[in-house]
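Researcher: Please generate the 3D structure of the following complex. Treat every line as part of one assembly.
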Amino acid sequence: MSRFLFYLILVNMLANIIALTPRVLVAGNDNGTILSLILVLPVIIIVSYIIISLFRHFPGQGLPEILKTYTPKWIATPVLLFFSVCWYFAGLISLIIYTSIIIRFVTPDMHISIILLTFVLVITYGILMTPRGIFYLTEIIFLIIVPFIAFILIKGYSNFYFQWDYVRVAIMHINHLPDYAAFSSSLYISIGIANLVIFNRFFTKLKKPTWKGMALLTAICTFLLLSTYFIPVGLGGFDSLDNVLYPWIMTSDSMRMKYGVIERILFFFIGAFLVLAVVSITMLWHVSLQLLSGAVQFKRFKWKRYNLTTPFFIVCFWAIAMYEIATISLDGLYRSFRIFDEYFLPVIVFLLIGCLLLAKKGAASKWRESEK
Amino acid sequence: MAGKRKVMKNFFFIAMIASLLLQTGCAFKDIDKRIFVLAIGIDPSEKVRDGFKVTLKLAKPAGDVKQAISQDFTYLSHDSDSIAEAIRKMESYVDKKLDLGHARSIVINKELISKDLNTFMDVFTRRGDIQMIAYVAVSEKTAEETVTFAPDTEPPATIALFNFFDNTGTDSPYISTTFLFEMRRKALNKGINAVLPIIDINEEKKHFEVNKSLVLKWGGEPVELTQLQTKYLNSLIKDVNEFNYEIKEDDHHMVLFINRVKMKYKIILDEGAPRIDIYIKKSGVISESSKVLDNRHLKKYSEQAEKDVKKKVMELLTKLQENNVDPFGFGLRYRATRLSREDLMDEWERIYPEIKFNVMVNVKLKSTGAIE
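Model: Done. Output below.
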């Protein structure tokens, strides 16, 4: 399996560790989080496998090309529009969360729009890159950041104050029915493979998923998913995390590097995850932008010989982000995050697989036609 | 297509560089415009009914630490009915920004401990800038006196209040270190109680004395542990690696130097009366004796030590049980080993006051020290 496939999944997973997912998991802690986590693992592996296998039939093509060639237009355009809006909101939610984390913990004196603007400028530069460029960027950042994250995770588990008793209390809640909110939000953090809808353009020769690759993927996903939940519980306690907004940030602040360069891991932690977040948002918005310009192209909207459709979309992206950051409350954000996970996510997954199957069928019949 | 992208990319690249011009300096306040709070003391207020008196220990900025003869701190205090309000008022007492990011010590007056902790501990976890690895302690005298007190051993640019607790300086088994996050999780979780160290100032006002501790009880009077009990508790729940034992038998007086302690326990309910089996393993050497010792009799000395340790541990456990507090977290372990049920904790609350302790001590003396 190509290592870039791993990046797609892992970036999404890691970037969401400090976002809202742990809060959803903790919120359901006496109500079946554990069983949801156990359930989500096979689902995620199977879904990833199916998506990779389906995209293998369309080497080097993104979803806009696939749908336009092999399915009727009345399916292609709405689907692409819907996906692009979903991807945009996924990126937007991350963006708002990270902006609010920065303003709460790092620079409380800075104006929120300036923080957002700084983010947005970097991300805009990123989303205009080619898939190849984004993958290489991801690889470099991944190689730099992952050791830090591994260090933080190991530090968490090996901490003297990490109490397995709290984790065991959490595990003992296995006798509750799975919690749908916990299930869907852990599905969301591990569904990074769906980014293939555009990033498949990079894979001109996508190999079949090997069992070794899948086993490795399963192991990494299990470890990260469980760590997302268990480390905060082990360090922050079981009953005491209920009203914590960012369980992972509190957890990282509870760790201490006695003889380290800085004693508080918090800043170290936020810094590392911020970089990953930028990569993750870049990926999401790149996908969104490409889907959008795949679905809609204003032919006459031109300045000299440049088509201004893409810049126009980018300006829209900025405007919505600016408006949202100024108006949304954390509660509103949390609620929209849950609505996204609980209602839109399953639709996205089924729609994506459905479309690909349809396109595959379309491709087969076309191939037969040309054969004749 | 490629040309367009290049123009766009260059545009954003220039925009990113140009955005630096918008930054009219550091968005952070410069260090000379900040004053760092090192410790926070909280007393009941004498002026405001049900209010608090908050004392802040501030580090005075100094050009050259080497030239300073004594330490340089200044103190602020204010009475108000809430802590956040008091801190806000004190911001108008200094010309700089009060920076709480370096506050490592929170000292609470003993009288406040039996009150509702939630009302004033809330602000410390709610504020993002206060470290979760700050030390929480109880003061025997007023918190103001403790915070403003400078012991004789304190050279410039160090703070004795930190050094007691951070295990880089003294490593005494009499000191219980409690971080803010730890106190929070133990206070809010069912089945475990937090332990706070008590800071006292000696009569001649020369130095601190930190050798007793307090077991918190949610909504009740805390239980004070004596010096010896604190030592035994710490030796069992903390990672203490050097501590002395005194054994007296007839006219023979011995001091053991223990460097490893391990404690394991098991709650047994289904064999007769409910009991907790506690296994304690200690190993060390003899560091003082009133008689000439024989290396061959190490086993005998070990047995003597075992008997003595067992008695002291039993005393401690009984005292804790009589007062219905549980710093070891037996209740938590009970929860951690049984499938979750709603009445699990009520059940434990019925069991705990009557449970029997079965302490098994294994002391392994390695040698009689450097001489026989």
